[in-house]
Amino acid sequence: MHSLNWAVRTESTLLLGTMEHWENGTSGNGTIGDFQSPFSPVIDKAINGITIIILFITMVSLGCTMEIEKIKRHIIRPSGVGIAVVAQFGIMPLTAFCLAKLLHLRAIEAITVLICGCCPGGNLSNIFALALKGDMNLSIVMTTCSTVLALGAMPLLLYLYSQGFSGLEHAVPFTGIFIALIMTLVPCAVGIAINHWAPRYSQIITKVGLSILLIATVAVGVMCGISLGATVWIVLSPQIMAVAVLMPFIGYLLGYTMSVIFKQNGPCRRTIAMETGCQNIQLCSAILKVAFPPEVIGPLFLFPLIYIVFQGAEALFLIFVFRMYQRFKPSTEDDPVKKAEYMAVDNGVEVGKVS
């Protein structure tokens, strides 16, 4: 454990030096090294601990919603999952990179946005997919697959995209990211085991976990508000706000577009759209707190909280539009006859053979 902490500290020191060099050479907005951490050591440790607790509870709760048999069925027919994974790790990282370039973000801002863009899908997408009458089995399997694949895909994508920023090639804190990913997969596996071996406890854990999650999030928000004060405006800059608004919307739009191109059915299209646009914000927050010291990340570790506000608001707007569309023009899925035909085609049976 001592050697692991030493590795993270060493990586953070190298990162700070790289950041200072990059900022001094390319930006007139001041250096990251000039930022003084507003957190006392006690508050900083408390926020770190609560962030890790939030991540652990979230991933255990997510695991409790997963059923091994349903996962196997989607693995046998992996087309939907394959499209979703390509969308998740293709569209979102590229979107984050393009926005960071177009908006001329500073070094630490660019890395923050890239980390958010390279994160796997979050469990919030499962709720949105349910509200949109999507394929829930597909949604849960997609979240699971993207979380597992993130262990290799996320460091690789961050390495590749950081090459696009001069002087930033060695600034990605891979050790901290790997630790955070392990912290994600282990509790998720615990949740899956609980749901498989003791399913009667799954709903209780999920409900209790949601309550603790809300309380912990409020606690972090209060501590940050007290400690940061006026410096919170750094994370509310026009460029950062523009990223928070545009990134999830582009993810929803392109995820749906890709599923249309590959001729997925309606529920799958809506599910893939939600899975693409929704990021695992808890994981992003944990990475930013674990991998970066306070003097490097500053108030930018609050970016995931800003992102999730717009991610949720835009998803709720799409849900509202979908529900209004259904009310005034019912979809074919609500017609019993057409639904039977739809299911038959989806299962590979000719429509004419359905009685």
Walk me through what this model shows:
The chain has one domain (2-353): Na+/H+ antiporter like fold. Helix 2 (41-63) packs antiparallel against helix 9 (202-228) and helix 5 (107-118) runs antiparallel to helix 7. It has 355 residues and is mostly helical. It has 15 helices and no strands.
Main attributes of the structure:
355 residues; Na+/H+ antiporter like fold; 75% helix; disordered C terminus; transmembrane helix; ion transport; Hepatic sodium/bile acid cotransporter; transmembrane; cell membrane
User: In the CATH hierarchy, what is the architecture at level 2?
Assistant: Up-down Bundle
In CATH, the topology is named Na+/H+ antiporter like fold
What series of H and E elements makes up the topology?
HHHHHHHHHHHHHHH
CATH class: Mainly Alpha
Strand residue percentage:
under 5%
Number of helical segments with 4 or more residues: 15
Distance between the termini: 65 Å
How many strand segments? 0
The value of Rg in angstroms is 21 Å
Q: Structural class, please?
A: mainly alpha
- Number of domains in the coordinates? 1
Biggest sheet details: none
Low-confidence stretches: 1-12, 21-35, 344-355
The geometry reads as globular
**Average pLDDT:** 76
Helix percent reads: over 70%
